[in-house]
Amino acid sequence: MDNQNIGSNLKKWLGFIALAIIVIVVLSSSFTIIPAGYRGVLVQLGKVEGVLSEGFNFKLPFITSVEKMEVRVQKEETNQSASSKDLQTVSTVVAVNFSVSPESVNKLYQQVGLDYRTRIIDPAVAESIKAVMAKYTAEELITKRPEVSSEIKDMLGKRLNTYYMKLEEINIKDFKFSETFNNAIEAKTAAEQQALKAKRDLDRVNIEAQQKISQAKAEAEALHLKKQEITPELVRLKEIENQEKAIEKWDGKLPQVTSGATPFINVTPSK
Questions:
Q1: pTM value?
Q2: pLDDT, tens digit, 9 for 90 and up, residues 187-220
Q3: Inter-residue contact 80 to 91 (CB < 8 Å)
Q4: Which of 69, 98, 172, 256 minimizes the number of CB atoms within 10 Å of its CB?
């Protein structure tokens, strides 16, 4: 009898334990926790039913599942190659910052799935790069880099918006060209520098020549004005001034040898 009681009690305890396990499993399947920066896509029997926000959320056990999708800013970096307008092969590294629309993660999951980077972002980046770079020559890709980057950003942003993603920023880290093109650019740069130096030297020579011409004109004009200022009266006045200076310096003695008339008036008093 005691053995029967023990067996009965054991079965009851086993039943309680099994029931407790079932209850725990059911309860644990009835809620989910969505971490910060994520949204949960609620899938019931294979059908997308809605979006769960951050924190603690209830769900139907066993028949529903939750796919967590990040909605923070994410980074995708790819190596891309394209042809320029002048058929130069250009390689570049493109870094794309993007985010998934929190309200539309269910649509992205339904239409694309979790591997949206491979299916959407990488092809969209490659297509935008090739389409924009084909509009510019290799040299313009260097000199107009901000314009090129802006145009790529506009095109890529429109493509990502179609799939409920927002383009935050795009950075083109570098443009790499063939060795032949790089050598041609260096040669062209050297030639332009030499041409610029020659032009500066020519401008300097022309300026110096103009300065000399201007100086000569000024001197000629001054001489012309001086000639216009000389009059007979001015000449006579100059002669008188010279005679007065000579008289002031004369010591009263006549020169011993003269040729021609004495240049001074006889100042000896008459008897």
A1: 0.59
A2: 666 667 777 776 777 777 778 778 877 777 777 6
A3: yes
A4: 256
Burial class (CB in 10 A: 0-12, 13-18, 19+), 254: exposed
Interior angle at CA 48, CA 47 and CA 52, nearest 5:
140
Is residue 96 a contact partner of residue 163, using CB atoms and an 8 Å limit? no
Distance CA 150, CA 171 (A): 10
pLDDT tens digit sequence for 131-152: 999 999 988 888 898 899 999 9
Domains of the chain, by residue range, sit at 9-70, 74-177
Long-range contacts of 60-65 (CB under 8 A, 24+ apart): 60/30, 61/25, 61/26, 61/29, 61/30, 62/29
Domain 74-177 has CATH 2.60.200.30: no
Please classify residue 90 by burial: count the beta carbons closer than 10 Å to its beta carbon, then call 0-12 exposed, 13-18 middle and 19+ buried: buried
